[in-house]
């Protein structure tokens, strides 16, 4: 597995699940990435990890990453390379695929900025044997920009939430009263996630509702300043990086995700699996979800986001229906067993097709 980092994030969650599953069934798996807490957890399970500078930009860092991947591949035979997103795919291609040893390479695309799809389609068509899109929307965009359909598969992300604490216990741990409406945003504090839009929308949601923002990133200071300027410090709590998603979801009445773009976000799937209603921007793979399961709102509009939150928070019956439908969809469509089986099928096909 090759991925930029192994911290908190949707792609990292998928990689952690696949690696643990493969290791449990007896496969030997190594993960090349920047260090992170998920990598540490995999090390504790006996999975080999290799530090590669894939978050750093520039050809120098890419060259170092490729060299370390090549060293890893030369240590023993490798049946399949599985890279996540474009830069990791290029590093895997440079490091492990040369005429004398052409290891099959699969690349999963978890979602890109619209302007990045043309380059991604061109590069992946050249370096990858198979490309997996996490949603039909991502697949359509790649195909639109020239990626050959014969190389393209769709494997939707999946979520499996461990048992969290009860609602009262989760709220007590956070110092929140049982009767206070709670909205949770689980997302890195980066431009595509649009926390600025969320804070603006929150001004329209009346007290005593509380907004929990879990995540960290380059926009943390900017978001904190916006909260202060809006006078919302008593109703918006910036929790920083968290590893207890199950606890936070147990405390929440609604999950919100106001992104400008998404592939198929794990936070939404995790909320559905936990029975937490979702209000999200109608973008990317989210548009494939049933409107009775997820409240989809126009992207980029604080007013639309606020209206969606108020509709869901104001109707206990709607929340109950959304929770039931979310759990059913998580079981029927977004199960980890289905995701693992689809990836395993592609691994097997690639391994059978490899050239001597």
UniProtKB/TrEMBL annotation:
Pfam families: Glyco_transf_4 (PF13439), Glycos_transf_1 (PF00534). Keywords: Glycosyltransferase, Transferase. Belongs to the glycosyltransferase group 1 family. Glycosyltransferase 4 subfamily. Residues 167-327 form the Glycosyl transferase family domain. GO terms for molecular function: glycosyltransferase activity. InterPro entries: Glyco_trans_1, Glyco_trans_4-like_N. Residues 9-158 form the Glycosyltransferase subfamily 4-like N-terminal domain. Gene3D superfamilies: Glycogen Phosphorylase B. It comes from Nocardioides lianchengensis. This is Glycosyltransferase involved in cell wall bisynthesis. Signal peptide: none annotated. The lineage of its organism: Bacteria, Bacillati, Actinomycetota, Actinomycetes, Propionibacteriales.
């Amino acid at each position: 597995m090759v991925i930029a980092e192994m911290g908190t994030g949707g792609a990292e969650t998928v990689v952690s699940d696949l690696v643990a599953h493969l290791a449990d069934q007896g496969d030997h798996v190594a993960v090349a990435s920047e260090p992170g807490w998920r990598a540490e957890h995999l090390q504790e399970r006996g999975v080999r990890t290799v530090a590669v500078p894939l978050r750093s930009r520039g050809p120098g860092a890419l060259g170092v990453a490729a060299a370390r991947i090549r060293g890893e591949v030369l240590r023993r035979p490798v049946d399949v390379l599985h890279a996540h997103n474009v830069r990791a795919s290029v590093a895997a291609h440079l490091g492990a695929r040369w005429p004398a040893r052409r290891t099959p390479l699969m690349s999963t695309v978890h979602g890109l900025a619209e302007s990045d799809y043309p380059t991604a389609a061109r590069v992946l068509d050249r370096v990858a044997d198979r490309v997996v899109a996490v949603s039909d929307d991502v697949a359509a965009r790649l195909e639109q920009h020239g990626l050959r359909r014969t190389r393209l598969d769709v494997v939707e992300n999946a979520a499996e939430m461990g048992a969290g604490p009860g609602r009262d216990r989760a709220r007590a741990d956070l110092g929140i009263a049982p009767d206070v409406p709670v909205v949770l945003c689980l997302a890195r504090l980066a431009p595509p996630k649009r926390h600025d839009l969320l804070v603006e929308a929150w001004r329209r949601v009346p007290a005593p509702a509380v907004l929990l923002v879990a995540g960290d990133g380059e926009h943390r200071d900017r978001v904190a300043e916006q909260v202060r300027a809006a006078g919302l410090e008593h109703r918006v709590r910036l929790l920083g990086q968290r590893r207890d998603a199950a606890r936070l979801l147990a405390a929440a009445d609604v999950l919100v995700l106001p992104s400008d773009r998404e592939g198929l976000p794990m936070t939404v799937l995790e909320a559905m699996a936990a029975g937490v209603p979702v209000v999200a921007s109608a973008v990317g793979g989210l548009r494939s979800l049933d409107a009775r399961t997820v409240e989809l709102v126009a992207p980029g509009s604080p007013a639309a986001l606020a209206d969606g939150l108020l509709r869901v928070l104001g109707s206990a019956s709607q929340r109950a229906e959304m929770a039931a439908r979310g759990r059913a969809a998580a079981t029927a469509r977004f199960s980890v067993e289905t995701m693992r089986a689809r990836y395993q099928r592609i691994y097997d096909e690639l391994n059978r097709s490899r050239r001597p």
